[in-house]
């Protein structure tokens, strides 16, 4: 039986996601920006939380971890590199470690950049990736704790995953990301078409998640820092991908689209 998923809007623009194995009834939440909406979703479905998966230590991803752990006795799994800043961690994991939610077995990929210890959770059998603040729909996190090229390497790694992997990320930043993508990639028909779709979804109050690795490869400028045409478009013809990525990040930070 396929995994069950519930996307839960939290705070202003965060998402938590429930991942449930219908066979064993094991249920995980990926990141906990706040308790109430996650609890409400669990109660609505009559699901019992068994696991809490944490992508990184930022408050808007861990604020509700301890309260949910206490309430359900759930097992908390998060990055070993950030174990000192994530309260309640039961299992500190590193790259390649398996993560089981009942019969759903995923693994950890380390994707440093946004934070030094950021991890993502790949459930290859379910064709699912939980990307936290590393990869957003048509964008990426800000490299707060690492040099931008470190984040580029992490995104380049995610780009090697199969195109049909669905991606759930930590924020609804898609509309601003899509407008930025169009500004640096105005001749890309896939970007233009996707911007229209996203405008319609947001106008209807709908989330833009999930995306797919394939869609990101086609429309996310931060996944294409080694594309010579994109480099030329931002005045960096022939530059290293790390330098192109750094400039894209700087342009995005200053973008007021
Ligand atoms: Zn963050």
Automatic annotation (TrEMBL):
Pathway: Secondary metabolite metabolism; methylglyoxal degradation; (R)-lactate from methylglyoxal: step 2/2. Its EC number is 3.1.2.6. The keyword Chloroplast does not apply. It comes from the Bacteria. Residues 13-171 form the Metallo-beta-lactamase domain. Monomer. This is Hydroxyacylglutathione hydrolase.
């Amino acid at each position: 039986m396929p995994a069950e998923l519930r996307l839960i809007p939290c705070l202003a623009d965060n998402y938590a996601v429930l991942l449930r194995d219908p066979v064993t009834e094991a249920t995980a939440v990926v990141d906990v920006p706040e308790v109430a909406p996650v609890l409400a979703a669990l109660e609505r479905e009559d699901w019992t939380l068994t696991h809490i998966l944490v992508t990184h230590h930022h408050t808007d991803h861990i604020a509700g971890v301890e309260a949910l752990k206490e309430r359900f006795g759930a097992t908390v799994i998060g990055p070993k590199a950030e174990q000192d800043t994530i309260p309640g961690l039961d299992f500190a994991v590193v790259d390649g470690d398996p993560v089981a939610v009942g019969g759903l077995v995923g693994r950890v990929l380390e994707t440093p950049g946004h934070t030094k210890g950021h991890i993502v959770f790949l459930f290859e059998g379910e064709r699912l990736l939980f990307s936290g603040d590393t990869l957003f729909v048509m964008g990426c996190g800000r490299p707060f704790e690492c040099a931008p090229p470190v984040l580029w390497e992490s995104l380049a790694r995610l780009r090697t995953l199969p195109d049909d992997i669905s991606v759930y990320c930590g924020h609804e930043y898609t509309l601003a990301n899509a407008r930025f993508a169009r500004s640096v990639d105005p001749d890309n028909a896939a970007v233009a078409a996707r911007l229209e779709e996203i405008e319609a979804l947001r106008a209807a109050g709908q989330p833009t998640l999930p995306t797919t690795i394939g869609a990101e490869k086609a429309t996310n400028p931060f996944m294409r820092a080694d594309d010579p045409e994109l480099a030329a478009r931002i005045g960096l013809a022939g530059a290293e991908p790390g330098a192109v990525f750094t400039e894209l990040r700087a342009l995005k930070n200053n973008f007021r689209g």
